[in-house]
Amino acid sequence: MTISAEPIIYGLIFIGVLLLVQGIYLTVFGKSISLNSRVNRRMEMLDKGAAREEVMEKLRKEMSQHLRSRRFPLYSILASKAQKAAIAFSPKQLILLMGAMAALAFVGLTLGTGTALPIRAAVSVAMGVGGVFMWISMQAKKRMGLLEEQLPDAIELMVRSLKVGHPFSSAVSIVATEVSDPLATEFGIIADEAAFGRDVGEALKDMAERLDMQDLRFLAVAVTIQQQSGGNLAEILAGLAKVIRARFRLFRRVKAITAEAQWSGKFLSGFPLLALVGIQLLDPNYYDKVMDHPWFIPACLVVGAFLTINLFVMRALVNIKV
What we know:
Helices cover 76% and strands 0% of the residues. It has twelve helices and no strands. The radius of gyration is 25 Å and the shape is elongated. It starts with 5 loop residues before the first helix and ends with a helix. It is an all-alpha fold. The longest helix is centred in the C-terminal third of the chain and has 50 residues, at 233-282. Among the domains are: 148-245, Up-down Bundle (Receptor-associated Protein), CATH 1.20.81; 246-322.
């Protein structure tokens, strides 16, 4: 029994799919849309000569197009994550991208492996859909993390602006120009909507629901209550900033405490696979006597199922809401 290079080829092709999706995205929309860029995308679009209304409509369309497409069976599995990631690709473009990645994966598997056609087709579809889904998930996680980290600083900037006498709409505009993306573009849309007559509290509430972000809901509720009953908004927002920072520190502490359990679950699920590879390297004929047994394949499937369940169980045990 010899070690096959096909699993390595599968892994390399899947990694290539992820990198290709990211490359296509940056090529089509430019580096300013990358979360690694410090460029304010909204301000860059305005600097290029686009009208304020056109920029607002384009960004609003990008940020709301995915939830409207949840009725599509295939697309519904990633609509929520694509919404949080603010993917500029339209739903149709993402579905086409899945198909293109699946086709490229099929070509790679055909050239690099000798597996049967049905297996290559199934694996190619899994790589195309799974690669795009994983890329969107990583983008959404990264973007939401940046938003949560930026929000307390943005609220404190609004507090300072209110204390020197600026109206709340001006404070929102200052955040849209002074902080970096992704929060700058989000608040820039709110500032543009307020300039065209929309209620700021309503706009904040819609953004909080679209992003499904609890801290933004707190901000929207605070602004709405102040608009209806009055009060010192600067003091309210200053207290809110302290609460958000405290929640953020608590969340980081919980994440640090549960990190050991998370990695333990990953290690326990990955160790049997590493042991299998090690055994094959040390003794390639170790499983020859049992491979022909009728229970060998079912047993492998059962072990694989338990390893997968272990990941979900460990994640559920350490998924503590703050």
